[in-house]
Specification:
CATH topology of the largest domain: Jelly Rolls
Structural class: mainly beta
Strand content: 35-45%
Distance between the termini: 35 Å
Number of strands: 31
Largest sheet: 8 strands, antiparallel
Number of helices: 2
CATH class of the largest domain: Mainly Beta
Helix content: under 10%
Length: 417
């Protein structure tokens, strides 16, 4: 049986605790500049137990899960809404962070795992508050909901995850590093985790368009199967540019669209381009090992006379490039052989484009700057999935176009003591 040593530099004292079942080394480091609270990015409902950031905690190199259990007193009024974002204070560099959302269990142990979302560390602010959109929104049932972060840290000296100055709330300081859920307060750490949920408390409107390719026959062509909603670069469904409906891989259901070399599948958003409003384009992408992929977003679609607002390359080996030939190029990393969430939010009212990958923001720029060095119109017209290289094989599924113009009018926050 080993001693638990907790070094609380804020107080410059050392606490020692003994565990009869397992050992932990939770310790807290002083933040010279406390991180406050996150700014409200969306006019939604924020649920939390914590106050402003005060310090941060590590576990001596051991992977641990930090969590907050939100009870029916908080979730009940939000029944029918959706958990859409998680906010947390990332204080020092970790070797891995994963959002974990659990269903109702008991008062001391969460239920079924509803979401496991690894984060791309290079896209996060450290030190600072981060707000990450969930890859799958979680419906609020009015029962317990556990919002957690798994923290992997190979260092014995880092303190990755932020917390407030306390006092601890019994629902806001859960921790688990060996299969048993306990409380930070049990180790003399009288804090709450800086972990918050952001909830849309009104039912989301249906998307403007959704496609999972399951209504089509595998082996047929996408635009040939549905020329109303899909076309090709040359407006020639059923031709050489059309993409195959494939059952090789699927994010949901049985089919996806397979984009290979020289395929050029286009989703036009309507008879005319959008000129106002805020829209989110999202889809899931699967690229096999050693292969590559590409897509773009067009301010105007007119074949070779189109205006490119965004270009994204998924290069073989896991490197990603955003607008590499433009004024504001960006990079990111992606993983082959798994489904990855791709999102692009276009705010025409504020001339802003934001590219997200697996829930993390990786690139922001003025929309009308465009993908190259020539400005584009403040319009949104189409997506294009092109097999840009001889090595391209990319599957896409669950393609969605959403209107984000209408948001709730109230800005509110639930906290509990």
């Amino acid at each position: 049986m080993r001693k638990l040593s907790t070094f609380l530099f804020v107080l410059a004292v050392t606490f020692a605790f003994v565990s009869t079942s397992f050992s932990q080394n939770f310790s807290a480091a002083q933040n010279q500049k406390p991180g406050g609270s996150p700014d409200g990015i969306e006019s939604l409902v924020t649920i939390h137990y914590d106050g402003d950031n005060f310090t941060s905690i590590g576990d001596g190199g051991t992977t641990f899960i930090a969590g907050a259990r939100f009870t029916p007193s908080i979730t009940g009024p939000l029944t029918g809404g959706e958990l859409r974002y998680v906010q947390f204070y990332y204080a020092q560099v970790a070797t891995g962070l994963t959002i974990k959302i659990y269903d109702s269990g008991t008062a001391s142990v969460p239920g079924a795992l509803l979401l496991n979302q690894p984060l791309t560390l290079g896209t996060l602010i450290v030190p600072g508050w981060n707000e990450v959109e969930l890859s799958t929104y979680i419906p609020i049932s009015g029962n317990d909901l556990w919002i957690c972060l798994e923290v992997a840290d190979a260092s014995t000296t880092a303190f990755p995850l932020g917390c407030d100055a306390g006092p601890a709330n019994a629902n806001g300081d859960y921790v688990n590093d060996s299969g048993v859920w306990q409380h930070l307060a049990g180790f003399g750490l009288n804090y709450n985790w800086n972990i918050r949920g952001v909830v849309e408390d009104t039912p989301a409107p249906p998307p403007l368009f959704f496609e999972n390719f399951d209504a089509y026959t595998a082996g047929n062509l996408v635009a040939c199967s549905n020329p109303t909603d899909w076309t090709t670069w040359s407006n020639a469904p059923c031709g050489a540019e059309d993409a195959e409906v494939s059952s090789d891989f699927a994010h949901s259901g049985t089919n996806s669209a397979k984009i290979i070399t020289n395929d050029d599948l286009v989703k036009k958003f309507g008879a005319t381009a959008f000129t106002t409003g805020k829209y989110k384009i999202s889809f899931w992408a699967y690229i096999p090992a050693t292969k590559a992929g590409y897509f773009n977003t067009l301010a105007t679609f007119a074949g070779s006379n189109s205006s490119w607002a965004l270009e994204v390359y998924f290069d073989a080996g896991g490197a990603g490039r955003v607008n590499p030939d433009g004024q504001v190029p960006g990079t990111f990393s992606w993983t082959a052989g798994q489904w990855n969430l791709v999102e692009y939010i276009v705010d025409l009212n504020n001339d802003l484009g934001q590219f997200y990958f697996n829930g993390s923001l990786v690139h922001t720029q003025q929309y009308t700057i465009g993908a190259y060095t020539t400005a584009v119109p403040l319009t949104l017209d189409a997506n294009d999935f092109f097999g840009a290289t001889p090595n391209d094989i990319m599957y896409i599924d669950d393609y969605t176009l959403e209107d984000m113009t209408i948001v709730p009018v109230e800005l509110s926050s639930f906290s509990a003591n």
